[in-house]
Amino acid sequence: MARKKRRNPWVATGEVLVWVLFATLLFPVGFAGWAVGHYTSLGKSSGTKTVTVTVGSTSTAAATTTAATTTSAAAAGGDAAQGKTVFASNACASCHAFKAAGASGTIGPDLDTATAADAQKAGMSLAAFVKQSIVDPNAYVPSGYSQGIMPTTFGSSLSNTQLADLVAFLVGGSQ
Ligand code: HEC
């Protein structure tokens, strides 16, 4: 009994000491931790603002890229139905025969029969040849025809979309 009475205060004192030490050490560490965390989160919130701006400009760049991709995609694969309208409204039919457009002009080559062969002679894909022939008719002049008859203004008077649509229409019709 006496031992227990003597021992208990020691244990209690030791415990108190441990707790005091614990509290003394833990409080500053905890406070420092909170302060650092608080600071970091403050820093983070302003950093997040910067990140938001970056994300904004990135998405703008992405939007630009998407738009550019769409434009080039449209240039590569135009709308043939729209191309028929472009063909009709630019007097192509007055010089060219082309069944899909109901055209029977004879001043220029028959776009149904001559063009694929001419593309081969020029060493170009049909679409590239047709596009070049519209934008720069003098670049390849098939035998039997003279340059300077087909207007050279389509490259500037037609929009890229109209040009792509027209190429899609001509390539589709002569296949
Ligand atoms: C005033 C007559 C004229 C008009 C209008 C005209 N072309 Fe032509 N086109 C020609 C002649 C002539 C050639 C052949 C000589 C040359 O390539 O310049 C030709 C060549 C072409 C060729 C190449 C054909 C081949 O087999 O080599 C294509 C494709 C073509 N024209 C498409 C068009 C389209 C599309 C239009 C309307 C936007 C058009 N042309 C309007 C007279 C015309």
Could you describe the 3D structure shown?
Helices cover 69% and strands 2% of the residues. With 175 residues, the protein is an all-alpha fold. Strand 1 (97-98) and strand 2 (103-104) form a beta hairpin. Residues 44-75 have low confidence and may be disordered. Strands 1-2 form a two-stranded antiparallel sheet. The termini are far apart. The protein has 2 domains: 11-38; 74-174, Orthogonal Bundle (Cytochrome Bc1 Complex, Chain D, domain 2), CATH 1.10.760. Helix 2 packs across helix 6 and helix 3 packs across helix 4. It contains 6 helices and 2 strands, in the order ααββαααα. The structure holds heme C. Heme C binds at residues 87, 90-92, 94-96, 107-109, 111, 114-115, 118, 130, 133-134, 137-138, 141-142, 145, 147, 149-151, 154, 166, 170. Heme C binds next to helix 3, helix 4 and helix 6.
